[in-house]
Please model this.
Amino acid sequence: MPNSQPLSRPHCFSGKLLTVEDLTQEQTYVIEKLKRHNRSLHGFGVVFGLRVTIDAGKIKISSGMALDCAGNEIVIPSDQSLSPPPVDWRVAFVTVKYGERCEGVVQQNEPSAVVEAFELILAKDNENRGHRHERARWLSCGKVHGLTVAKIKRVEKGWRVDRRYRPPVIK
Model:
């Protein structure tokens, strides 16, 4: 199992002064425990939604959720669209990637919140290539990278979703 190092969390007791490091360690523990669960028990792939269509020259991605190989939950809360790839591309892969951004009230040069986010990418390569599956479950490699949800091909009249491509799916 990738990244199966023991996790550590703060031990709290009456009278202990909690520091920023203690609270950060507690958050890291919970986040890593969930990611380990996702990687080990579910693998990686689309949980629901994230259907790709092409309409009026735009690439449309429906709302949905996926797990990446690191165990991150990628949530796309509303339908999205992308411009088509450059004209010299013959094939492109629609990829979703986990991200985070800082926002909120800034105090002592630090933002007050970290918000989970996503990125939509048109890539020349399939990010899922080389991954194995076992008993209908895609095995995560434990590394941070995007999840390819569709392959599109250039045709005479623009772009078309390649229906033969099957993205990894969480079952």
Summary: Helices lie at 20-42.
